[in-house]
Structure to design on (354 residues):
């Protein structure tokens, strides 16, 4: 069995790989050559900002190692795939709109495409952070929400069947928006009560369509119907509370919130990826599921580590540490100088840069 050396980011490591070179910082050995990687080691290394590439061996033959390298895509490759997926969703929704929905074959095939990308989780998250879904509140937004929901489902430990059903639900969650007048969807000013009522009814339009599919698991329908419900009853269209909200809807709500806040819309600019994290954290106290939000935030901040950000004074810095109790003010590195943004009231992160 051939041993091939790979250079991977911390979040691309897998349990069972073997450290190929000593990891040393300030004369301290963080991990010795020959160490077998475990999940706790991966979690620890993911929090160390200077580790951009780690040399590892993998106990696979050379052909399989080549496949591992090929599976991990760049941000640019993910963006190309997601652009293609956006057109796929538009085509699927057009067919549904014209002929109704008899089965989920197209949705299943599409969900499989998304799940095949999930080995490149870092690139997916960075792509969504960098690009959002722009003013496309239906098709690209559905792609982003489906990807984030599937990732969160994995982090929560859902089994393969439930992740499949969750992905179907996330893809279809905003189909009802295709039934809303585009002038209302793209309106820059304040919506009238009548217009807002139409917006609030889009989950019902989606639900009424997909519930007709024979033998469809009800969880898919409930995820679609309830993704705007909130634990305190402030959501829509039903105004239900707490445990009455299906777990798929709770997951989709987090993904939906993140992408919406982090995207430019016709009526406002993106508030950025840090504001998106802050809003999810704030809403976890009564509106969104607290435990699901905690898992999402604990994992996502690891993917922000080591990324370069633009500050509002035009400095480019690297994220070193993020305090989960103060998400908007990370510790950053500029050249050789550390800046704690909690202690720099005039400085803030504008955006993550490529």
């Amino acid at each position: 069995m051939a041993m091939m050396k790979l250079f991977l980011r911390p979040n691309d490591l897998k349990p069972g790989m073997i450290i190929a070179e000593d990891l040393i910082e300030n004369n301290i050995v963080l991990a010795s050559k020959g160490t077998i990687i475990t999940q706790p080691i991966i979690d620890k290394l993911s929090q160390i900002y200077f580790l951009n590439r780690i040399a590892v061996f993998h106990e696979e033959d050379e052909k399989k190692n080549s496949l591992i390298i090929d599976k991990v895509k760049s941000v640019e490759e993910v963006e190309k795939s997601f652009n293609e997926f956006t057109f796929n969703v538009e085509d699927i929704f057009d067919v549904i709109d014209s002929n109704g929905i008899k089965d989920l074959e197209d949705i299943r095939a599409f969900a499989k495409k998304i799940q095949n990308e999930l080995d490149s989780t870092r690139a997916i998250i960075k792509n969504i952070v960098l690009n959002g879904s722009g003013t496309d509140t239906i098709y690209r937004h559905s792609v982003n929400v489906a990807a984030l929901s599937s990732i969160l489902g994995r982090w929560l430990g859902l089994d393969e069947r439930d992740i499949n059903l969750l992905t179907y639900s996330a893809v279809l969650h905003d189909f009802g928006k295709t039934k809303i007048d585009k002038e209302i969807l793209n309106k820059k000013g304040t919506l009238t009560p009548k217009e807002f009522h139409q917006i609030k009814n889009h989950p019902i339009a989606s639900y009424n369509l997909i519930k007709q599919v024979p033998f469809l698991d009800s969880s898919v329908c409930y995820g679609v119907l309830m993704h705007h419900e909130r634990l305190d009853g402030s959501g829509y269209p039903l105004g239900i509370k707490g445990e009455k909200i299906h777990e798929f809807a709770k997951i989709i709500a987090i993904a939906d919130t993140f992408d919406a806040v982090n995207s430019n819309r016709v009526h406002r600019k993106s508030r950025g990826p840090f504001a998106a994290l802050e809003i999810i954290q704030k809403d976890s106290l009564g509106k969104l599921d607290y435990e699901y939000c905690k898992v999402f935030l604990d994992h996502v901040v690891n993917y922000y580590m080591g990324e370069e950000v633009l500050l509002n004074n035009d400095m480019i810095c690297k994220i070193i540490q993020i305090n989960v109790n103060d998400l908007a003010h990370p510790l950053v590195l500029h050249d050789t100088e550390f800046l704690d943004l909690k202690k720099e009231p005039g400085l803030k992160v504008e955006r993550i840069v490529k």
